[in-house]
Write a structure and sequence with these properties.
Oligomer: single chain
Number of strands: 32
Protein name: von Willebrand factor A domain containing 5A
Largest sheet: 8 strands, mixed
Number of helices: 16
Shape: globular
Helix content: 25-40%
Distance between the termini: 57 Å
Mean pLDDT: 80
InterPro entries: VIT, VWF_A, vWFA_dom_sf
Structural class: alpha+beta
Strand content: 25-35%
């Protein structure tokens, strides 16, 4: 797969892609992406090229057109087999044709056959898609321009020949990128950040609800392009009402107005502090060969597997006493530390940590289906809700099968997923979390894995929200049809989008409320909004609503007797909305081209953005924070011993004192608060465990210990700040 030779001519001439332009239009929580790809055939023969490119897993392609010389071709959505036949007919009669379809195995790979390009002719292809933006831990909305496509690993015996992906070093990439974004929301935009350099943010109005931003020149194609958008009052629910398409049939999804409601609740502190202290925590860690790559492209490189091991250390130290846990690791085969989940305590924690320490990225490919089947086959433990944490660099070829398995078991567990490194499959990571009622996180660039994983552990420890119900209060003569699947789980820090079709009298005000039971406390969220559609909003909400419905129907088609009936419905909706599905494809044929194209056809793969070869990572020195954490006991306390003294940077004599465990634990807490506040996300849960251990000891000398500890460590941390 990593064969660069097939990309260039014998004279090392560049491949025919010249440039890429991208415009992003963000409306509150959703976005339209308009991209233009410019090609040129520099050969003296006609050329059939295939461009395979990645899209976010929940994206909906909604426009595809091509300009060849003076001719404009616009694609139509047709049933897949029909589209393929038309494409082959056009080519064999010498016409130009373009075909765009989803890969059957993984929804985030689209393959584009640009058909036959005459010598010295240029072609530009315009592709639009709509997508929902993911919410980050800090309330930012993340947009990632799919760039790096890691080689997909195809498990043995899996259906589908798999899409072959080729890759070259960045220095040889002969094309350029321009990227700009326009953001609008009912709320003011507080800032926009990126992992690439941006030109400054320009506000377009005084209330700062609209702004534009651009990627600075000189992009090197060595990473994903990521934008983070922050709104003020992020937790207020919002509604965007969009008018139907005038040309569409009234009463159809595209003809009626559609509303998108976003819910991103904050729960009362009193309820949140009653953190659940039970649960069965199952950690599933990727140990395929690619986990030996560096986590990011910085000096002092740490490998993905070593980050995962450090993260497991923090997780194991942060688990509550009395819960159950197990650790699985997988590659081409899988292993588990215990035959079944065991109760968490000092002995089991130490045994697990010893095994984690020995983990290497030595299990071959990435086959996640079998270990998942094994985990789900274990009976659940009464009163211990199952929480699954999956870590992978997301290079699997059977994404749909994996997501379906998670969905089938969604009643009995929550699934939290982590995509590691540039190019983790967003379809896999988002799909597992979405179907498993959990949360997805991506660790790219210079991100540290630990804070993101600890945030998900906080979600997993949150009390469960039950009995979520949504009611609509509409004016007389209006009805609402909800298109989204029912919301079954809500976390603090997790956003839900609801799409609904509005029929009848539209234009007056309406309200929507969502009720739930949180750890036994009823809670209600109300939102009043006008049903009058916003002016000129395009069809972004309609298309995402269509995509939502298409996904639901596709799932239904897979487990249904009347598969053909459901498939018909999907094709019909897909053709009406112009949104692609797994049963349809875009086909464009240049019909007014009478000249037949002369000469034999060449087939050439165009490189997707590159996966550079990284030098093997050097082993960085042990992080002092992890050194201290590794000494904590399962109960939450630390022991006074030479290892602790060394971790605190002191000699054994300096830390000697009676009532040693209380003293040692207070010293560790002061050191964390005094020197590691920037990493508080990572140690907050294990510090809370230490504080509750201390409270249970009822030690008389806490105040003196805190004073003496501050003097010894040269800190000034207040006893109250420690939570004592």
């Amino acid at each position: 797969i990593m064969d660069c030779c097939g990309l260039l001519t014998l004279q090392k001439e560049p491949v025919p892609l010249k440039s890429i332009e991208v415009e992003l239009e963000v409306r509150d929580h959703v976005a339209t992406v308009v991209s233009t790809l410019n090609y040129e055939n520099k050969e003296d023969k006609p050329l059939e090229a295939v461009f395979v490119f990645p899209l976010p897993g929940d994206a909906a392609v909604c426009h595809f057109s091509a300009q060849i010389g003076q001719t404009q071709i616009v694609a139509e959505v047709k049933e897949k087999q029909k589209a393929r036949e038309e494409y082959d007919d056009a080519l064999s009669s010498g016409q130009q044709a373009f075909l765009l379809e989803e890969s059957d195995e993984s929804p985030d790979i689209f393959s584009l056959r640009v058909g036959s390009l005459p010598p010295a002719e240029s072609a530009s292809i315009r592709l639009e898609y709509v997508t929902e933006l993911a919410v980050q831990a800090d309330d930012g909305l993340r947009f990632c321009l799919p760039g790096v496509l890691n080689p997909r690993y195809q498990p043995q015996g899996s259906e589908g020949a798999g899409v072959q992906v080729t890759s070259v070093p960045a220095s040889l990439v002969p094309y350029s990128l321009s990227f700009s974004a326009r953001v609008s929301s009912p709320r003011p935009i507080s800032k926009v950040e990126s992992n690439c350099s941006l030109d400054p943010l320009q506000y377009l109005n005084t209330d700062q609800t609209q702004a534009t931003v651009k990627l600075a020149a000189g992009h090197k194609f060595d990473r994903d392009v990521e934008l983070l958008i922050y709104y003020k009052d992020a937790h207020q629910p919002t509604a965007v009402v969009e008018a139907g398409q005038a040309s569409a049939e009234p009463g159809s999804l595209m003809g009626d107005p559609v509303v998108m409601v976003s819910l991103y609740p904050e729960f009362p502190q009193s309820v949140m502090s009653s953190t659940a202290s039970c649960g069965e925590f199952v950690f599933l860690v990727d140990r395929s060969g690619s986990m030996d790559c560096a986590t990011n492209n910085t000096e002092q490189q740490e490998t993905r597997i070593s980050s995962a091991k450090d993260t497991l250390l923090l997780l194991l130290k942060s688990l509550p006493m009395g819960c159950y846990f197990n650790i699985y690791s997988f590659g081409s085969s899988y292993e588990h530390i215990f035959p079944k989940s065991v109760e968490y305590g000092e002995k089991t924690m130490e045994e697990a940590l010893k095994k984690v320490e020995q983990m290497k990225a030595d299990l071959g490919g990435t086959e996640i289906l079998e270990p998942l089947k094994h985990i789900y086959s274990q009976p659940c433990i009464p009163t211990q809700p199952r929480q699954l944490f999956v870590f992978t660099d997301g290079e699997v070829g059977n994404t749909k099968e994996v997501i379906d398995l998670v969905k089938k078991n969604s009643g009995s567990h929550r699934c939290f997923s982590f995509g590691i490194g540039e190019g983790a499959s967003s379809a896999l990571i988002n799909g597992m979390a979405k179907e498993g009622g959990g949360h997805a996180q991506f660790i790219t660039g210079t991100d540290r894995m630990q804070p993101k994983v600890m945030q998900s552990l906080r979600f997993a420890l949150q009390p469960a929200v039950e009995d979520v119900s949504v009611t609509w209060d509409l004016p007389k003569g209006s009805t609402v049809t909800v298109l989204s699947p029912p919301i079954t789980t809500i976390f603090q820090g997790k956003r839900s989008l609801i799409y609904a079709q509005l029929t009848g009298q539209v234009g007056t005000a309406s309200s929507h409320s969502e009720q739930s039971l949180l750890a036994g406390h009823p809670s209600e969220n109300q939102l009043h909004f006008s049903l009058r559609p916003a002016e000129d909003t395009g069809l972004i909400v309609h298309r995402l609503a269509a995509r939502t419905l298409i996904c639901l129907l596709e799932m239904e088609a897979e487990n249904n007797e009347e598969k053909e009936e459901v498939k018909k419905k999907v094709v019909q909706l897909s053709v009406q909305s112009g949104v692609s599905s797994s049963f349809t494809a875009f086909i464009a044929v240049n019909k007014d081209n009478n000249k037949e194209i002369q000469g034999p056809l060449l087939h050439r793969d165009i490189p997707t953005l590159p996966d550079e070869e990284f030098p093997p990572a050097k082993k960085p020195p042990r992080d002092p924070l992890l050194q201290l954490v590794s000494l904590q006991k399962a109960s939450g306390c630390w022991l006074l011993d030479p290892a602790l003294a060394a971790a605190l940077g002191k000699t054994n004599e300096e830390v000697e004192k009676s009532n040693s465990e209380v003293w040692a634990t207070i010293l560790a807490l002061i050191w964390l608060h005094g020197f590691k506040m920037d990493a508080k996300d990572e140690w907050e849960l294990l510090a809370a465990k230490a504080v509750s251990w201390l409270s249970a000891q009822k030690a008389p000398s806490v105040t003196e210990c805190v004073e003496a500890g501050n003097i010894l460590l040269g800190c000034s941390v207040q006893k109250t700040a420690l939570g004592l």
